[in-house]
Amino acid sequence: MHTLSKALGAVAAVGLFAGVGLSVAQAQNTQLRIQTHYAPETVSGKLAAQYVEDITKMSNGEIQVEMFYSSSVVKSVETFDAAATGILDCDMTGGGYQTGKNPAFQFVGDIMGGYDTPYQQLSWLYYGGGLEDAQALYNKYDMQLVGWWVYGQESLSSSKPIAGPDDFKDWKFRSPPGMETKIFEKLGAKPIVMDFTEIFTALETGIIDGADASGLANNVGLGLYDLVKHANFPGFHSMPSDHLACNKAKWDAMPENHRTIMSVAMEALALRTALTFEKANAEAAAELREKGVTLHQWSAADLQTFRDAAQATWPEFATTPEAKALVESHLNYLTQLGLVSQ
Questions:
Q1: What's the alpha-carbon Rg for the chain, to the nearest Å?
Q2: Closest to 219 in 3D by CA, of 270, 184, 173
Q3: Residues 146, 37: one domain?
Q4: Which DSSP state fits 252?
Q5: Residue 253 sits in the same domain as residue 319
Q6: Domain check: are 271 and 122 in the same one?
Q7: Domain check: are 104 and 218 in the same one?
Q8: Is residue 37 a part of any domain in this protein?
Q9: At what angle do helices 130-140 and 321-336 cross, to 10 degrees?
Q10: Can you tell me the distance from the alpha carbon of 133 to that of 212, in angstroms, rounded to the nearest whole number?
Q11: Domain count of the chain?
Q12: Is residue 3 part of a domain?
């Protein structure tokens, strides 16, 4: 009888510990509130949705995401601070919005006039020491850089021809904040900084002549070419690195396997984004030509004019230790790739 009691006690103990284990497993669920500036119907919006689906499935539902599209909680430029302070958990916009906080964010957001392809730019992050350099910057502001998704060179939208640098004279266009405004001012344009969500109305009402919004396919999704009939393709001026950055305290508190799932899924999103846009932009170009939109392709000499103006502006923004370190890191890697001669 005594042996039976011991056996029953052991079974009960196993059941108790199993119950404790179950409750611990249940406690490891991760709830995230993430905001992106992209509308859900754009190509990038759909890719963001795919990322959320991926991490949910790979975690067996332990990672649950409430996704906010079109900057529906706070303005695009405020997303980073909203995540850092706990209003949101993660920011899925881009570092370029934070240049007012530290100019170093320009060089993790959009270096401009640097890399030719998203693959080159991503290789700096993952194989050129970029992630370590960028992480120091993000951590300084209580955020963790999870990864990038780069859709390639952007195309401008315009109500007027933009066939070369001369067409930028007195051209009023929507610009994101940061270094871009300085570069285009040197080329004679009149950049107007406004939120991503205000572009359509500003074009519709004629407040601006054109816009730097996104890649060609995303611009189609935003309906910009319903309003204006000029664009440039392939793009050259801007290749922003959209990021996923999370509140560092929230990130550090997550189980290691959840952090790994999110990081590796970002690498998958990066590849999927680059490949998707290579196809989507080509399809959008064909569609726009059929609809009477003029796509301007710049000559090699005109492209160099822009590149020279951009690279001349980098030192003007390298005014903090973090910015100087990032510019040096980029220049070293661009030199290795043969894109810059030092």
A1: 23
A2: 173
A3: yes
A4: H
A5: no
A6: yes
A7: no
A8: yes
A9: 160
A10: 28
A11: 2
A12: no
For residue 115, is it left (φ>0), alpha (ψ between -120 and 50) or beta?
beta
Indicate if 140 and 247 belong to the same structural domain.
yes
Neighbours of 74 (CB within 10 A): 17
Q: Is residue 14 part of a domain?
A: no
Contact 216, 276 (CB under 8 A): no
CA distance 275 to 149: 11
Based on the fold, state whether residues 299 and 202 are members of the same structural domain: yes
CATH number at residue 179: 3.40.190.170
Q: Using H for helix, E for strand and C for coil, what is the string for 99-139?
A: CCCCHHHHHHHCCCCCCCCHHHHHHHHHHCCHHHHHHHHHH
- The DSSP output letter for 192 is E
Q: What is the DSSP letter of 97?
A: G
Write out the chain's pLDDT in tens, 342 residues: 455 455 445 444 444 444 444 444 455 899 999 999 999 988 899 999 999 999 999 999 999 999 999 999 999 999 999 999 999 999 999 998 999 999 999 999 999 988 989 999 999 999 999 999 999 999 999 999 999 999 899 999 999 999 999 999 999 999 988 789 999 999 999 999 998 889 999 999 999 999 999 889 889 988 999 999 999 999 999 899 999 999 999 999 999 999 999 999 999 999 999 999 999 999 999 999 999 999 999 998 998 899 889 888 999 989 999 999 999 999 999 999 988 765
Torsion angles phi and psi, residue 64, rounded to 5: -120, 130
| Residue 145 sits in the same domain as residue 171 | no
User: In terms of domains, do 229 and 93 share one?
Assistant: no
User: Taking the model in full, what pTM does it have?
Assistant: 0.80
Q: Is residue 317 part of a domain?
A: yes
157: which residues sit within 8 A by CB, 6+ positions away? Answer: 203, 210, 211, 213, 219, 224, 225, 228, 230, 231
Return the bridge partners of 262, or none. Answer: none
Structure tokens at 13: 């103990």
Taking the C-alpha atoms of residue 294 and residue 288, their distance in angstroms, rounded to an integer, is 8
Identify the domain containing residue 160 by its residue range: 156-237+294-336
- Residue position matching structure tokens 């695009």: 76
